[in-house]
Design goal:
This protein has five helices and eight strands; from the N terminus they run H-H-E-H-E-E-E-E-E-H-H-E-E. The protein is α+β, with helices and mostly antiparallel strands. The chain has a domain of about 45 residues.
């Protein structure tokens, strides 16, 4: 009986150790999101607002042609009928990473109510002290919303290997509305605020409406 208890304890200890190693010390690469044919067609339709973005040689969508093989034609500039609404799902965002960047196995984005979260894997140089050659796992959360006629952008936190970083290490930017803090003077955040008519993040969906 005692031997069985010891054996179970050892197995549990080994299992917990393996889980900690794989999740935090040696995290595995993320599995890239693979969009279905119908999902890719919807995404291609949305990407037309970006006038060709995502149609490079690496794209697997139905509109995936090499932009370099089609010569550009002169065209009169016009904003007539331009769509200023950007709407993407969580799967579409991660699908874009998989099709158009080398971050598919290193970066994953999650969209929940008023919160955009990301997980990032950073391979460390073999000469890096202590953890050389290992992979660093970083997670972060950013609140995105629109209240009182202006966008809200708040860093909710950053964790490294599952350990939340102190606010002081983040420049005391945690839980601070960056638009309110820095949007009062000329610069990026003021321009960003003035250019956004609405922004919302819900479960699995991001919507941004731009001003004229």
């Amino acid at each position: 009986m005692i031997g069985a208890i010891v054996l179970v304890s050892v197995l549990l200890s080994v299992g917990i150790t393996v889980w900690v190693l794989t999740q935090y010390i040696f995290p595995r690469q993320f599995k890239p999101v693979e969009l279905s044919q119908s999902e890719q067609q919807v995404l291609d339709q949305k990407l037309r607002v970006f006038d060709g973005f995502g149609r490079g040689g690496s794209s697997t969508g139905s509109g995936g042609t090499d932009s370099g093989s089609v010569p550009l034609e002169p065209e009169r500039y016009s904003e007539s009928g331009a769509d200023r609404r950007i709407e993407l799902t969580e799967r579409e965002l991660n699908g874009l990473l998989a099709n158009n960047t080398d971050l598919a196995q290193k970066l994953a984005i999650d969209l929940s109510d008023d919160l955009a979260s990301g997980k990032l894997l950073i391979p460390l140089d073999p000469d890096f002290p202590v953890m050389g050659g290992k992979t660093l796992k970083i997670t972060a959360g950013m609140e995105l919303a629109f209240r009182e006629q202006k966008p809200i952008v708040i860093l909710r936190g950053v964790s490294v290997m599952g350990v939340p970083l102190p606010n002081a290490w983040l420049g005391n930017m945690k839980n601070v509305d960056l638009v309110s803090e820095f949007g009062g003077s000329a610069g990026f955040w003021q321009s960003f605020s003035e250019g956004v008519e609405n922004i919302s993040v819900s479960d699995g969906r991001l919507v941004i409406q731009l001003r004229e």
